[in-house]
UniProtKB/TrEMBL annotation:
<comment type="pathway">
    <text>Amino-acid biosynthesis; L-histidine biosynthesis; L-histidine from 5-phospho-alpha-D-ribose 1-diphosphate: step 7/9.</text>
</comment>
<keyword id="KW-0028">Amino-acid biosynthesis</keyword>
<keyword id="KW-0808">Transferase</keyword>
<dbReference type="InterPro" id="IPR005861">
    <property type="entry name" value="HisP_aminotrans"/>
</dbReference>
<dbReference type="InterPro" id="IPR015424">
    <property type="entry name" value="PyrdxlP-dep_Trfase"/>
</dbReference>
<keyword id="KW-0368">Histidine biosynthesis</keyword>
<dbReference type="GO" id="GO:0004400">
    <property type="term" value="F:histidinol-phosphate transaminase activity"/>
</dbReference>
<dbReference type="InterPro" id="IPR050106">
    <property type="entry name" value="HistidinolP_aminotransfase"/>
</dbReference>
<feature type="modified residue" description="N6-(pyridoxal phosphate)lysine">
    <location>
        <position position="222"/>
    </location>
</feature>
<protein>
    <recommendedName>
        <fullName>Histidinol-phosphate aminotransferase</fullName>
        <ecNumber>2.6.1.9</ecNumber>
    </recommendedName>
</protein>
<dbReference type="Pfam" id="PF00155">
    <property type="entry name" value="Aminotran_1_2"/>
</dbReference>
<dbReference type="InterPro" id="IPR015422">
    <property type="entry name" value="PyrdxlP-dep_Trfase_small"/>
</dbReference>
<comment type="similarity">
    <text>Belongs to the class-II pyridoxal-phosphate-dependent aminotransferase family. Histidinol-phosphate aminotransferase subfamily.</text>
</comment>
<keyword id="KW-0032">Aminotransferase</keyword>
<keyword id="KW-0663">Pyridoxal phosphate</keyword>
<dbReference type="InterPro" id="IPR015421">
    <property type="entry name" value="PyrdxlP-dep_Trfase_major"/>
</dbReference>
<dbReference type="InterPro" id="IPR004839">
    <property type="entry name" value="Aminotransferase_I/II_large"/>
</dbReference>
Length: 365
């Protein structure tokens, strides 16, 4: 019983530690998880009502084409329904893209560090991942472009980038998309798009009119606060969306997720309030990092990657003992920590814990 070669050495995804596990292991009563960029403000009340109403239909298979949700999202983005495909999180859209387009021998280009699922799914399909180091925490688009050749199938751009939080601006992105051959798919993973307030951030939906090879990924897991329901989507040319639908499992998203997402899209007041509260949180955290003399990458999502100037595992462990779950151990950034922006109260507790960890390290020398 030998599985396919491409997966033998593949690691199992290590999620941010669940709160219950940390409490049990460390005997803590209060634990704050700032490790997975979840929404600290929960989710829309209208989505909650939609979930409650949909429970009655649990014995019936969901709508395979998410028709109601597709209409809501098409309206919100001003695109055609045929340009949308839904997945069990945008993670599944990444998987479906790899499944539909990548074969052994193909090359696919991504940044390093970036969201690990691009490489993970490419590896399963036997494709070769070409990882292009970030430059000052940002995508190096000219270097990525230089790697495009006749074997290249997909280029992944994570905007804002996870884990660094930096963005690619509209001018540089447009230049890149124009230069990439039209047979190469350009994936714009915009999991945090709704948080971005910077004027240079591209309104990427408008590229879809001119570039058949562009596909945009969005999710309901982040600002919409529906992470546990597993729902996200891709927006692209109808032909590309059709190919993704051909590899999609018939009932890949649930009734409850579809209903919740459709209600969540309509509740723009909740999203605006989360965006504003996140902006306040970012400002607070940046001011505190400045006060502590710690540098960070310019954040545009709901997380910040900062340089602790200590081995990141040490800071991670110190924060964990104080009830804060963060993310550490990045390949290229051995002293950096990624921290999600929480509620005001959570952010204050995080900074207190961080100061205690830094002081402890200074005392221990
Ligand atoms: C969280 C995240 C996703 C996908 O999350 P889903 O829960 O699968 O929708 C995709 N890309 C990036 C960069 C993310 O941070």
């Amino acid at each position: 019983m030998q599985p396919k070669n491409s997966i033998v050495h593949l690691p199992v995804y290590q999620p941010g530690k669940p709160v219950e596990e940390v409490k049990r292991e460390l005997g803590l009563t209060e634990v704050i998880k700032l490790a997975s960029n979840e929404n600290p403000f929960g989710f829309s009340e209208q989505a909650k009502a939609a979930i409650q109403a949909e429970i009655a239909n649990t014995s019936i298979y969901p709508d395979s084409f998410s028709t109601t949700l597709a209409a809501a999202v098409a309206d919100y983005l001003q695109v055609d329904r045929k340009q949308l495909v839904f997945g069990a999180g945008s993670d599944e859209v990444i998987l479906m893209l790899a499944r539909a387009y990548l074969v052994p021998g193909d090359e696919t280009i991504m940044a390093d560090e970036t969201f690990p699922q691009y490489k993970h799914n490419a590896t399963i399909e036997g494709a070769t991942s070409i990882e292009v180091p970030l430059k000052d925490g940002k995508h190096d688009l000219p270097a990525m472009l230089a790697k495009v050749n006749e074997r290249t199938k997909i280029v992944w751009i994570c905007n804002p980038n996870n884990p660094t939080g930096t963005i690619v601006g509209k001018d540089e992105l447009e230049e890149f998309i124009r230069a990439v051959p039209s047979n190469v798919i350009v994936v714009l993973d915009e999991a945090y798009a709704e948080y971005v307030m910077d004027a240079s951030y591209p309104d990427s939906i408008k590229y879809l009119n001119d570039f058949k090879n562009v596909i945009i990924l969005r999710t309901f897991s982040k600002i919409y606060g529906l992470a546990s329901l597993r729902i996200g989507y891709g927006v692209g040319h109808p032909d590309v969306i059709h190919f993704i639908n051909q590899v999609r499992e018939p009932f890949n998203t649930t009734r409850i997720a579809q209903a919740a997402a459709a209600a969540a899209v309509a509740d723009t007041a909740f999203i605006e309030s989360c965006r504003d509260r996140n902006a306040e949180g970012l400002a607070y955290m940046m001011a505190e990092f400045d006060r502590l003399g710690l540098s960070y990458f310019e954040p545009h999502g709901n997380f910040i990657m900062f340089d602790s100037k200590l081995p990141s595992q040490q800071v991670f462990d110190g924060l964990l003992r104080r009830g804060i779950v963060s993310r550490a151990r990045w390949t290229y950034y051995p002293t950096h920590i990624r921290i999600t922006v929480g509620s005001r109260e959570q952010n204050v507790k995080f900074i207190q814990a961080l100061e205690a960890v830094l002081q402890e390290a200074a005392v221990l020398g």
